[in-house]
Amino acid sequence: MGTKITLKDLAKILNVSVSTVSKALNDNPEISVETRTKIKELAESYRYVPNNIAQSLKSKSTKTIGVVIPAILLEFFCKVLYGIEKEATARGYKIIICLSNELQKKESESIDTFINGSVDGIILSLAEETQKTKNYSHFYKSMNYNLPMVMFDRVSDEIECDKVTVDDFHGAYNAAKFLYETGCRNIVFVSPIPDISVGQARESGYLEALEELGIAPKILNVENYNTIERELTEFLKTHKVDAILAADEYSAVLSLNVARLNDYKIPDQISVIGFTNGLMAEHSIPSLTVVSQHAEQIGRESVKALLDKITGQTTETTHHVVETTIIHRNSTKKLA
Q1: Whole-number Å distance between alpha carbons of 258 and 264
Q2: 66 has which bridge partners?
């Protein structure tokens, strides 16, 4: 492996100062166009790569954002990441991504990785284990280092930081009312995430809507995605159901499949609504009506909130709430 070329090496080859090389590579007008071009061509020929650590020490900014997400297979988080990357790039920042895999220990290790000066701030969504244990001690490290942090989607009121969330309560509330307006009266709420803040907010919205409508609630909290088929099949045998409001996209698609496997016609006999407007929902058979959380917007808003803190544009703690919309497809009846 060849030795990495440095500014000093380039300066020695051209017989100029290191300062001249640095200014030329940064298009400083103090250096003539001819000299800048000559230095850039040499740097390119040697495949020169700037030392980001040295640059960050000099500028006291890494122009990098650390991102911690709990799961990579869920399309919602993929879309949020896309929004984060797009907004960060537009603002001249790069991102480093860590995956907690829903584990508190990995989430804590990610925070430790970022507080060593490698990033200017952190954007994260809480791991399921963290929300279950309610142990947030590892986040105080970030605060002790004065490292700005934005939480999105899964958040905690116990942590003083900027937050970007979805109005999950009204998303579920409106979905339940929508099902009622299409003629459904036996609406079950299926959730594999009862211990996560977003799952709890959606369940609360569902319960509020059914209470106002004078309908008895039916809640099926499943152990995980792998048990939905068995648990929902048993539930359908013992309960009258004409609609399923699922807490996320996977559980909605799986619920739709279970209903079809049990010879229910969708949506004539059972309507299904889920959360997250992903490819699975769009291309399921029939296509799935969803509560869209506008995941990409959540990513963009998270970056904006973080950079407002990093650049000193605001010192106040903010909480931005993204409204949901229902996208009607073929898994629910049409409004009369």
Answers
A1: 9
A2: 96, 122
- Phi first, then psi, for residue 321 (nearest 5°) are -110, 125
Instruction: Give me the long-range contacts of 88-95 (CB less than 8 A, separation at least 24).
Output: 88/303, 91/303, 91/307, 92/63, 93/63, 93/64, 93/65, 93/120, 93/303, 93/307, 94/63, 94/64, 94/65, 95/64, 95/65, 95/66, 95/67
Q: Is there a common fold for 63-165+296-321 and 168-294? A: yes
Q: Which residues neighbour 144 within 8 Å (Cβ) at sequence distance 6 or greater?
A: none
First to last CA, the chain: 70
Tell me which of 3.40.50.2300, 3.40.50.300, 3.40.30.10, 3.40.50.2000 is the CATH number of domain 168-294.
Answer: 3.40.50.2300
pLDDT tens track for 133-174: 999 989 987 778 889 999 999 999 999 999 999 999 999 999
SS3 content of the chain, % helix, strand, coil (to 5): 45, 15, 40
3-state secondary structure of 101: coil
What is the number of other CB atoms lying within 10 angstroms of the CB of residue 185? 12
Mean pLDDT over 286-307 rounds to: 97
Per-residue pLDDT, 1: 38
Residue 29, token pair as written in the block: 């007008």
pLDDT tens digits for range 163-220: 999 999 999 999 999 999 999 999 999 999 999 999 999 999 999 999 999 999 999 9
Q: Which residue has the tokens 């590892």?
A: 138
CA pseudo-torsion sign 98, 101, 104, 109:
negative
Confidence of residue 3 (pLDDT cuts 50, 70, 90): low
Name the superfamily (CATH) of residues 63-165+296-321.
Response regulator (3.40.50.2300)
Helix (H, G, I), strand (E, B) or coil at 230: helix
